Structure formats: C-alpha cells, structure tokens
Amino acid sequence: MKILCIETTCDETAAAIVTDELSVLGSVVASQEGLHREFKGVVPEIAARAHVERIFPVIDQALKKAEISLGDLDAVAVCNTPGLSGSLLVGVVAAKSLCLVNDLPLIAINHLHAHVFACQLDAEHSVFPCVGMIVSGGHTHLYSYQSALSAQYMGGTIDDAAGEAFDKVASMLGLPYPGGPAVSRVALNGDPTAHQFPRSFIHEDRLDFSFSGLKTAVRYAIGGPGSKDISHVKLEDGQISDLAASFQQAVVDCLVSKSVLAVKQSGMKNLCVGGGVAANQVLRAQLSERCTQEGIKLFIAPREYCTDNAVMGAIAIERFKAGLFEDLSLNIKPGLVRH
User: Fold this and answer.
1) Which of 79, 130, 310, 325 is 20 to 30 Å from 108 by CA-CA measure?
2) Count of CB atoms within 10 A of residue 147's CB?
3) Is 90 exceeded by the pLDDT of residue 337?
4) What's the CA dihedral at 192, 193, 195, 200 to 10 degrees?
5) Rounded to whole angstroms, how far apart are CA atoms 249 and 285?
C-alpha cells in the first residue's frame, strides 16, 4: 500500500509517500522560514500564498523521490485540522483535486495526532496505548490514546504554546526566528539557575500549562518590574545566555512534570512526545531521565519528524485499514478539535 500524505497546516509545505510497513519512499519539505523571519513569526497570508506556489511542485518531487506515479497510489491523505485556515485550505483542495482526477480515496488527518504517531516511525513495537504530548509552536496538549485512532483530551495550555513562548522570548533577547533553536543554542553557555522564573501549576494535579506569566517574568528580568518597552535595553552575551537557559529550564520543568503526571493519572505505561519543541535536547534528556526514574516507557519522535512534515501523516495507514475515508465535501477545521 502506498499513500501520498500532504501537510500544509502552518508554514511548511510537505508531501511524502509512505507504505503500510511505515517505509518512507519519498519525502519533501519546503520551509518558509526565510519568508517569515523579518516578522519574527508566521504571517498567515504569506504562508497561504507560499503554499499555493509550492504545493504541486513539492508533491511532484516526492513522487519522483519515491520513483512512482500518481497511478501507483492507493490513497491521498491530508491534514485538515488544526492549523491556519488559508494554509489548510491549500492542502485540502490539492488533495481533493488529486483524488477526483485519479479516482483515489481521500483520508483526513488530524495534525496533532499525526505528531504523536511520528513516535511509531522509530519504534520496534506499538507505542499504543499511551499518553501523547504534542508540544510545538502552536500547541501544547496532552491526550490519552487507547490506539492511534482513539484519542481523549486530557489537558493543555490555557494561553501560549511552549513553542510560541520560545519565539517571543527569543525576540525579547534579540535572537532570530525561529526562536526555539536560537534560544537553545545560546542557552548552552548559560546558567539555568541564574533566574528563578515561575513554573505555573507545577505543584497542582491539573493537567494544564501556562507560559504567559513566564514570558512576563523574562520581560521584567530584562527591563525591570513593570517594564513594557525593553527595546532600549542592551544585554551582554552572558546575560542573554543566562536568561535563555533559565527560561528554557522553566519550560522543560513544566513539560516534564505535567507529562509524567498525565501518565500516572491515566494508568498507562507509555509516553509519546512529538512536535517541534520535542527536538529540544534539554527536554529530551530530562524526559528520558525522569521517565526512567518513574518506570515509564518513553517514545520521542525522531528529530527529523518533530517539526512539521508529511511523513507523520503515516497515521493515515491506520485510517485506511479501518476504512475511514472522506468524500469530496471534506472541509478544514482550523481550531483545536479535542478528540
């Protein structure tokens, strides 16, 4: 079985050909980082236009890498939720067009659950049942999974996502976009205990995250209590590194604490972690250490499949086997679907 998977939820135009054995025959990702860097964040209109320009060339490249044609496909899968409206629409329209012209079944993918399924790509055995944590630029959420197709929302951020907080703090520190890799890079030379930043809800049993207060604390550490405009503040390299390391550690402490708590509350034994922030080395190391202590089996998506990509769309294989297909009336669902 060969399925073409399409991913256009935010600012990456991606396509991949995957098999029912979870082999990747061809994968292409066209990044838009350069287009959004000057704005220090994703501009939805720019992202959508870039998808329009790139979607079919990217699909064509993926097919060529796989050395197959459209006639060799068994289905087309596309992420239709959640994400930016314009971006999602480009992918869904492209997928429906290919299905109509080539008489192929259409499969809908939830972007968040695909991030969790990415952990399966590098695992020798099934990662399900598990607790899944999706931690990215737009999402920080916890789900319990009895199977790849059975998800129950457990909790998540009540304001900013972890990746969004990284981007905003990077901007405060004068670091480039995307913020996650930039903050992590300078944090290597910093002291994670230099600043005692808040860790919201960390001592509570609720499975919620909040990073808005943490961002404010970083701002006040830079410009002083109550400061709003910090553009005039000049920081030395050592100060930037300490701030970055302390901020990163606060985020990691929250993510590790709540994901472990979720596993304990669920009664499950496996924890799967996916999303762009899952590539963070400090998070990966401290999750591994804590899970070993708690007797939890940890699965983290391979680094190359943490950021948005189409390979994680291999979750479509499970939907194909279950006969879960869509008709051509499939629509986008930009907001978070909590199931």
Assistant:
1) 130
2) 12
3) no
4) 80
5) 12
Instruction: Report whether CATH 3.40.250.10 matches the domain 2-116+306-321.
Output: no
Structure tokens at 79: 């992420």
pLDDT for the residue numbered 335: 80
Mean pLDDT score, 169-190? 96
User: What is the rounded CA–CA span in Å between residue 239 and residue 195?
Assistant: 10
User: How long is the chain?
Assistant: 339
SS3 196: coil
pLDDT value of position 329: 97
Token duo for residue 323: 């006969």
pLDDT band (50, 70, 90) for residue 40: confident
Task: End-to-end CA distance of the chain: give it in Å, rounded.
Answer: 27
Residues 339 and 327: their CA atoms lie apart, in Å, by 21
**Spatial CA neighbour of 263 closest among 228, 298, 231:** 298
**Sign of the alpha-carbon dihedral angle for 19, 22, 28, 29:** positive
Q: Domain ranges for the chain, please list them.
A: 2-116+306-321, 124-305
* Neighbour tally for 127: CB within 10 Å: 23
Q: What is d(CA 45, CA 288) in angstroms, rounded to the nearest whole number?
A: 39
Mean of pLDDT over the chain: 96
The mean pLDDT value for 244-270 works out to 98
Instruction: Give the tokens for residue 73.
Output: 């496909």
Q: What are the tokens at 265?
A: 């509350």
Do 2-116+306-321 and 124-305 fold alike per CATH?
yes
Centre a 10 Å sphere on the Cβ of residue 208 and count the other Cβ atoms it contains.
17
Can you tell me the distance from the alpha carbon of 172 to that of 174, in angstroms, rounded to the nearest whole number?
6
In the chain, pLDDT over 70 holds for what percent of residues? 99
Beta-strand ranges (E) seen in 197-300 are: 270-274, 297-300
User: What's the token pair of residue 47?
Assistant: 């992202």
User: Between 162-172 and 237-266, two packed helices, what is the crossing angle to 10 degrees?
Assistant: 170
Q: Which of 116, 143, 114, 79 is closest to 326 using CA atoms? A: 79
Show the CA angle centred on residue 103, arms to residues 71 and 6, nearest 5°: 70
